[in-house]
Amino acid sequence: MFEELKEMMCNYIEVDPETITPESEFINDLGFNSFDFMCLLGEIEEKYNIHVDEEEIMGLSTVKDAIKYIEKLRKEH
Amino acid sequence: MKEFTINGTVMKCYPLTAAQRLHFYTIKFAKPQVLNIGTGLYIKQDVDFDILKQSVQEAIADFDSMRLRFIQDEDGAVYQYVIPFDEREIGFFDFSGWSEKDAHEEMTKWTHKPLERFNSAMNRVVMIKYPGGYNGIYLKVDHMTMDSSSIIEFNKRVLELYCAKAYNYPQPKPLQSYIKAVEHDLEYEKKNNPSHIKDEEFWKLQIEGDEPMYTDFTGPGRLITQRRESGNPELRSAVITSNTLDAAISVYHLEAEPSARLLDFCAENKVSMASLLLMGLRTVLSKFNNDEKDVSVKTNVARRGTLLEKHSGGTRIHFFPLRTILEPEQTFIDGIRTIQAEQNKIFRHANYDPIELTMKRAKYRKFTPGASYESISLTYQPLTLREKNTEMPDIDYKTFWYSNGVAAQPLYLTVMHRPEDNGLNFNFEYKKDVVSDSEMEFLYYYYCRVLFRGIEDKSRSIGQILEMI
What we know:
Chain A is mostly helical. Chain A is 48% helix and 0% strand. Chain B has two domains: 14-164, Chloramphenicol Acetyltransferase, CATH 3.30.559.10; 182-392 and 403-468, Nonribosomal peptide synthetase, condensation domain (Chloramphenicol Acetyltransferase). Chain B is built from 14 helices and 17 strands. In chain B, the strands form four sheets. Chain B has a six-stranded mixed beta sheet. A five-stranded mixed beta sheet of chain B has the order 6-7-8-3-15, sandwiched between helices. In chain B, strands 1-2-5-4 form a four-stranded antiparallel beta sheet, with helices on one face.
């Protein structure tokens, strides 16, 4: 999932994909803003057929957090 | 998509997007220059005007939406197309013997002059020798072709190209296709598009919830009067249209140090600057309206998430109502987080046509024409000419936004960063028959008081802040 997510993220931000790690922070390291992040989540919802909650995702700061959250939703689905 | 033969060439022409229709709708009710945006970018150094001219021409060649044209079919429907080449001559004007005030007034006059809407360039670029040893460009564009993000991107490109030619700085990266971005937007608008269906459901629920409350930036007078005139003491919306559309801009400069404090607060607390500014604004409106808890403002969404959207120019802004119901016991930071969660919801449904939303809401609430729950429209523009990754020398800049002289809404507030010191400029564009310059100053004063009382102690309650200011 990390590789898929990385590919999706590179549609939003100008970074060398090789520099993205599971520990990368969306805002501080990768330069995401709230709008980019919400658009990315929309794409994730469509790809994995899940529904994310706007309040829950406010606590996601790293790529690892997002993967954990998506995997949890996919198991529940 | 429709094909038109223009000057002997068959051109692919595309319908207007929702963001463009929003502007086109505005000109039905206002003077044609309502869509003009005039800007000036001047740098404090000698400029080689031949190199600057080449840089502007190259930037026009790179930037599709600077080559955008409109055309009408036999039924009056408007389409758009991008011409492949635009080898126009770039004008030059010498203001060096003028006072800065007179130069400003002259370029404001240029901004008042309407552009020809069909089969004609939707912008004008003039190289400027500005008073005080500054040199640069004046740019006038039609809002149906570009928004503030596009304008900043175009100006940045001219500067980058100039620096590449004059100082051997690296060439800027290629831009993205404007038409590709338009095709994406038009695909979304198809009624059977799953994202469109999802967004429609979201906004229907918003419209049909309990009724919001109008809060005016001058206080409750307008609503009280309209309650009396309509004979409805429970009226919660107010007509915000007025007799004239004449507008002016008042700009207030927040110094670099306090601006940095606001930015630091956002970084430390992991909240967005837009949410902080919305929190400040809604609290001022609450203060001006007897500590009303239910406050709505219009929030503008730039809709530039993907790299295609960020670097394809065009006009993409949609506006939506943002409603906040905050109790006086809630803390300032809690209020910001509540607003950020609301904004996130809006972001996820921001491709929806704002005109369609406005119409549906007016029909559902049986509005009197011109009625609204929001008196102010707020835009936060985070982009500046100096972004990280931008290869440019350290230059002293001046940037200006010139008024087009008319406005469709009573008050637009745009908060943007100054390129020279990253301080914040608060641009209030207001209708002159509704409000005065001194009332804008009053509003700005209270706005700053709320923001700084809030950030100096984020655990302060909203009620405490309302009392303190």
